[in-house]
Amino acid sequence: MNDLTPNIPEVVAELRDLFERYEQALIDKDVDVLDAAFWDSPHTIRYALHENGYGFAAIHGHRVARPPGPGIKEKRIRLEILTLGRDIATINLEFKVRGRDLIGRQSQTWVRFPGLGWKVINAHVSTMNETAVW
Predict the structure, then answer these.
(1) Handedness of CA 35, 119, 47, 56 (dihedral sign)
(2) Exposure of 130 in the CB half-sphere (CA atoms within 13 A)
(3) Distance CA 66, CA 27 (A)
């Protein structure tokens, strides 16, 4: 079995850098960087607020159509990075939605592929009411 040691510091740092690059690319609408972050596969899925992207081609199409700008994130509340070994990770971000009484949630599953490097294979963005209590 592969080593699944959680949160090896240099792997966490590598994923944090990739995540920050991805977040800046969202603001800049740098489609090349956004596309490079995702696995070019029909199996890749990205659920966003206004669309579901099934496969890399659909995800790319949504990115091209999206306007540039700061997006919906007003401020970060919590960022969690979990790496397992050196080849799999999850990144979860909780944020305040700009101008709304909503909390946003963003999750990504990253896999390191031989010859390709780190790629997002699954992503999800959703919101919830700030006052929701379970």
Answers:
(1) positive
(2) 9
(3) 11
Q: In whole angstroms, how far apart are CA 82 and each of 63, 98, 99, 124? A: 26, 26, 30, 16
pTM over 0.85: yes
* Position 1 pLDDT exceeds 80: no
Q: Give the pLDDT confidence of 46-78 residue by residue, as tens digits.
A: 999 889 999 999 999 999 998 877 789 999 999
Q: Return left, alpha or beta for 22; rule: phi > 0 is left, psi -120 to 50 is alpha, else beta.
A: alpha
CB count within 10 Å of CB 9 equals: 8
Bridge-partner residues for 79, per DSSP? 93
Cβ–Cβ under 8 Å, residues 43 and 58: no
Residues facing residue 93 across a β-bridge: 79, 106
Q: How far apart are the C-alpha atoms of 80 and 91, rounded to whole Å?
A: 6
Cα–Cα distance between 21 and 133 in angstroms, integer? 33
If one looks up domain 9-129 in CATH, what number appears?
3.10.450.50
